[in-house]
Amino acid sequence: MARLSCSPLLLLLFLSSQLALLVAGEFLRLPSEKDVVGTRWAVLIAGSNGYYNYRHQADVCHAYQIMKKGGLKDENIIVFMYDDIAGNRDNPRPGVIINHPKGGDVYAGVPKDYTGADVNANNFLAALLGDKSKLTGSGSGKVVSSGSDDHIFVYYADHGGPGILGMPGDEEYLYANDLVRTLEKKHAGGAGYKSLVFYLEACESGSIFEGLLPGNIGVYATTAANAEESSWGTYCPGDDEGAPPPEYDTCLGDLYSVAWMEDSDAHNLNAESLKQQYERVRDRTSAAGTYSLGSHVMQYGDLDLNDQSLFLYIGTNPANDNASFVQGSSSTSRQLPGGRVNQRDADLVHFWHKYRRSAEGSAKKGEARRRLVETMARRSRVDSSVELIGGLLFGSEQGAKVLGAVRPAGQPVVDDWDCLKSVVRRFQERCGPLTQYGMKHMRSLANLCNAGVREEAMDKAAAQACAANPSSLF
């Protein structure tokens, strides 16, 4: 038998060339429907109501249109939205919702799976877990009945605070530990999903996963903000380029949300990874790294998943087959700077513009003024009540330190979540709803638990602090 002779150098070159061809082949081969085993699922939720929160439902409707164009079936898309925007008397285009100043209707065709009072934490968690027995109300009954080969995409848009997300009910919240526990439970069965991606739009949204979301349950999450800052509304009324049409007096979208959706609208998602979209959204949401009217987009969980194609989760619009991702290129020709507003101030912007534009002496102007003054009064009352509670429990100087403390990165806002829930319950019983603005104080209330305060002491302090301003006044 003849022996082939080759130097170690030639052998190394040969093997290197073969490896390069193999890697290149894998890199250039884009995934297709044939590569996707199992089913894509999507859960889309807007956790607010009221016309001044227009943007949250507009975001979710837009997300639905992306899922549909990407090839997901309605039976696998579950939509939670209060559904009080399209037909709202303040909506200048009845029956229509837009998510961009020059955009078309995103409301058409959106399923009404869970609306009104059916948009609540219990139903959301039950649908995510796939447990029909836990559902309440009169919703569609759709749940994520996923299997071990399936990919799940969850998108949540709402107000938030440290450790919590809002729901339409004034005194209802989704707590971070309950959400993460549901994800863990769905994974624990072994047949819940292959991988799950969670996009979260809310103030302090990083606190929902910080120190809580494990890296070994196949969940990759990105958030609009870190654990200590607000997220931002965009396409808000004003004189900025990108303001909504003049007949609108509310923000049309949220900055992080429109960033990922307009990016998805513009590209062939076969060729774009989760990581690439994360980086692009991070750049836009940070105002090109300046964080002037912007926030820190974060990522949590199983970061190895971010190399996967977006196509695996939300499909891709066939119209974008030739619109491949190019690193560093602009997201879309439709992208506008847009008037940006701190999420918590968007309601004030709405009432102010409504007041300013209304005719002098009109009932509409009077109503807008009343709502503006009432909202400011509620804010002041919540702020002073929390401050006074801290002072009663610890003294004015030490109370400010306890309330303002921030735990080190990597830790959740609180260790005893039952304590936090009881403290919040006692506050609201004595002082009235925190409201979407007051959720910013959730860290202060969590700090009371971290400092050893228990329900009885909190109840006594809250009763004393809020006795002079009963909630019935508001």
From TrEMBL:
Residues 1-25 form the signal peptide. It holds the Pfam family Peptidase_C13. The active site is at 159, 203 (nucleophile). Coiled coil: none annotated. InterPro entries: AE, Legum_prodom, Legumain_prodom_sf, Peptidase_C13. Gene3D superfamilies: 1.10.132.130, 3.40.50.1460. It comes from the Eukaryota. Keywords: Disulfide bond, Glycoprotein, Hydrolase, Protease, Signal, Thiol protease. One of its GO terms (biological process) is proteolysis involved in protein catabolic process. Residues 371-466 form the Legumain prodomain domain. GO terms for molecular function: cysteine-type endopeptidase activity. GO terms for cellular component: vacuole. Belongs to the peptidase C13 family. This is Legumain prodomain domain-containing protein.
